[in-house]
Amino acid sequence: MDANRSEPPTMTEIDHVAIAVRDLDAAIAWYESAFGTEVAHRERIEHDGVEEALLKVAESFIQLLSPITDSSPVARFLERKGEGIHHVGYRVADCAAALEKMRAAGAQLIDKTPRAGSRGTTVAFVHPRGAFGTLIELVQEQPQEQSRSGSVNLPGTGGRAPSSPAGSPARDPRAGHSPGL
Known about the structure:
Layout: E1 11-20, H1 24-35, E2 39-45, E3 50-57, E4 60-67, H2 73-81, E5 84-92, H3 95-104, E6 115-116, E7 122-126, E8 136-140, E9 145-146, E10 152-153
């Protein structure tokens, strides 16, 4: 921390690296075979048009994203750019405060206010323009039960979270959870 800085850094950890894939099951099988990873969490996020699989790596995740509709931002990303890194998720202690800092720093915001994310998180996206070409997701974790294997277990879900609720807070109407930028 800079000696002149009196507040802690906004970004606390890398939460995840998101990779857009066409075939989620094939990508999961490849990661299991190549790296010995296991799915810590899998969720279908209807309002974003994606299904995700989170592979635990230390205190972070590899997030495999696959579109479930042809019109989802991830489907458009795959059409234009092909499979590959889609965005980086930065863990923050307070998503609203981090979003305000991004706004004050001149970042172009996709989400105007934080909203519900997968696995019970609160998230907001920052556009690659003004962020040195990187789509950024701010991720605030919520308290959750952790199993001994490190997988995320949301109470009452058998380890699999239900789809995120529709009606998330206001955001740029041109953007979705995982903008196809």
